[in-house]
Specification:
By secondary structure, the protein is an alpha/beta fold. It folds into 2 domains: about 80 residues, no CATH class; about 150 residues, 3-Layer(aba) Sandwich (Dna Topoisomerase Vi A Subunit, Chain: A, domain 2), CATH 3.40.1360. The protein contains 6 helices and 12 strands. A 6-stranded mixed beta sheet has the order 5-7-6-10-11-12, with helices on both faces. The protein has a 4-stranded antiparallel beta sheet with strand order 1-2-3-4, with no helix packed on it. The chain has a two-stranded antiparallel sheet with strand order 8-9. Strand 10, helix 4 and strand 11 form a beta-alpha-beta unit. Helix 4 packs across helix 6. The radius of gyration is 18 Å and the shape is globular. The relative contact order is 0.11.
Length: about 250
């Protein structure tokens, strides 16, 4: 199935193609209508949700926002309401992908956690790509093919995860492993920290909506002491993977 917006981007009435809850959600992330149109985001018809579930659409799901990926042959949907911790779905049996709805230039790249956050960063003027989840640079334990679509050599890359990763070792591992993968492809990698004033995590879109400046975030190189214990884990993880592959 092709996942493409059922409208042309010029002067389209988004309310005709986006459920009111979906449009409200996108605008809450600070996204302007022009960006939503250009990215081709739309509300998916209930009959097409079957493409995202192997055993039928769960009865709890009422609506979903569709984020088409480059090429139109792949998409992820945001579920309304979510299924517990499961907020997004993609077609069964498909690999993770990089979300690149707009042309990637030769400028520094900002890797964002999620489609809406990538769009928010792009709207703010940054060369942004999205990753569905922090471990989604891997599929079946191997780097995803989409990583080959970008020339990483001699490129400055900033990974911008949600604010809570610095309180969770499992997420720190994922960010560090992603950073090492990109560094191995020749990139100069750092990780940005979004400030968190309470126990509620802050995403990049929330940070920007609140008046935060992306280029004002504190950043850490992969060699920073904050990653010291993760570096030890990563060495053991890579060694174990090498043994399994032998």
């Amino acid at each position: 199935m092709q996942f493409v917006a059922p409208y042309h981007v010029v002067n389209v009435d988004l309310a005709a193609h986006l459920h009111a809850d979906h449009l409200r959600d996108l605008r809450a992330s600070g996204l302007h209508d022009e960006i939503i149109r250009a990215a081709g985001v739309y509300s998916i018809a209930p009959r097409d949700m079957v493409h995202f579930f192997s055993r039928g659409v769960p009865a709890k799901i009422e609506t979903a926002t569709c984020f088409p990926y480059q090429g139109g042959e792949f998409a992820r949907i945001k579920l309304f309401p979510s299924l517990g911790k499961m907020k997004y779905a993609q077609p069964p049996g498909t690999s993770a992908r990089l979300y690149m709805p707009f042309t990637i230039t030769n400028a520094a790249i900002y890797v964002c956690e999620g489609e809406k956050k990538a769009l928010a960063a792009y709207q703010a003027g940054f060369n942004a790509v999205g990753i569905g989840g922090l471990w989604n640079f891997l599929s079946n334990g191997e780097p995803i093919d989409d990583l080959n679509l970008i020339r990483w050599d001699d490129r400055e890359v900033t990974i911008i995860p949600d604010s809570d990763i610095f309180q969770r070792a499992d997420l720190m591992r994922a960010v560090y492993a992603l950073g090492c993968e990109l560094r191995g492809r020749g990139a100069s990698v750092c990780v940005a920290q979004i400030p968190q004033a309470s126990d509620v995590k802050v995403g990049l879109d929330d940070f920007i909506v609140g008046g935060g400046k992306v280029d004002g975030l504190e950043v850490f190189s992969l060699g920073h002491r904050i990653f010291k214990s993760i570096e030890y884990w990563h060495g053991r993880w890579k060694f174990k993977k090498a043994l399994e592959a032998a």
